[in-house]
Amino acid sequence: MIMSPVTEIKQAALESGFHFAAIAPVDPSPLAHHLDIWLQQGHAQQMRWIPDRRMLLRDPRRVWPDAKSMLVVGLRYSLSSHYDAFLTDPSRGAISRYAWGRDYHKIMGKRLLALGKNLSSILRQPVNFRKFVDAGPLLERPLAARAIPGFIGKNTLLIHKAIGSSFFLGELLLDISLPPDPLQELEGCGKCNACMKNCPSGALGIPWKQATRNCLSYHTIEGGPIISHRIRPLQGNRIFGCDECQTICPFNRENDQDASPPDPAFVPDNINRVAPSLADVMRWSRDEYDALFAGSAVRRVSHEYFQRNAVVALGNWGSDEALEILAPLRDSPSEILRAHAAWAIGQCHSAENATNILAKWQQNEANPLVRLELQLATNTSGN
Fold first, then answer.
1. Partner of 252 at 20 to 30 A CA spacing, among 134, 158, 198, 344?
2. Which residues have a Cβ under 8 Å from the Cβ of 38 and sit 6 or more positions away?
3. How confident is the model over 23-49, as pLDDT tens digits?
4. Cβ atoms of residues 365 and 341 within 8 Å
5. Burial class (CB in 10 A: 0-12, 13-18, 19+), 120
6. Is 287 helix (H, G, I), strand (E, B) or coil?
7. H helices of 1-138, where?
8. pTM assigned to the model
9. Which residues are catalytic?
10. How far is C-alpha 45 from the geometric centre of its chain's CA atoms?
């Protein structure tokens, strides 16, 4: 039986290990104008590359003028509840599930490159391509939503009706014309607001709009050096990302993970890649951090920022054990760690010990930012 070019490409994508494949048009998504609104409302925050690439993001043909069609592929990762006891332990730092395994940019990038190089042979004609994995200027989710059996959820994530939202997206822009998959009219989220109600920081107050300034994933991964006082208590024990709007989603809860298991590359091989002890995180040197998370998406944040996130988590733990870990940070060479440690010590349950530590620290601290944090923390711990 002779297969169509589209069928051959999709089959090759599935044989490459991807969980789904679809062909999308390369003209601008009807949802592209929402990017301008989002930018006007200031949601890019510190992510300055987004407004800088605004015009490219709106139209894939601006990214590569030769593009005539786009192959969209997905690779599933795990939302397993197997590690929930560790993730909810306040003495441990919770890492977002997408980062438990190997770096998806590298895994998908290699597979897409190999697939792209093989297309000329598959189709028996010259095929040029450009690959993208969450790094190039493409509005991936709105573009992919026109091709896969899915939709953009109220949590702003792309939801595949068969496997939920726990997958990575990748694309190949192609210089050959292929018929796009038909747009599927789906009910979508309907009346469900579970993600909005479950967001711990109120980042999803309006359906289909994420307020970046409130998002814990933004603050623990992409944000600036100082996490705001408003966000710190809401962070809980999260030290890299947040999964709440996915784990509560019915499309993720109802879809059988065993029917389409996650790619083995994204299954953790070490509990430290899931929920490391906060005490261990604060002991790790930069070299130890780099070695543990080599080949992991966690390396997107520096050793210093990762420890900063752990310091906030220690403050939210607030135990005597947390105070013992935090106290030595008054001598840290990092003003970022010292500033957050001052706040965290002020949150600890042992108010008298915390107040004494803060009072002695104030006598020798010269940095204005840290001194301000110490003053605020002293007022907190005394109440």
1. 134
2. 44, 209
3. 999 988 776 666 666 666 666 666 665
4. no
5. middle
6. helix
7. 5-15, 33-40, 49-52, 54-58, 60-63, 84-87, 104-123
8. 0.92
9. 134
10. 16
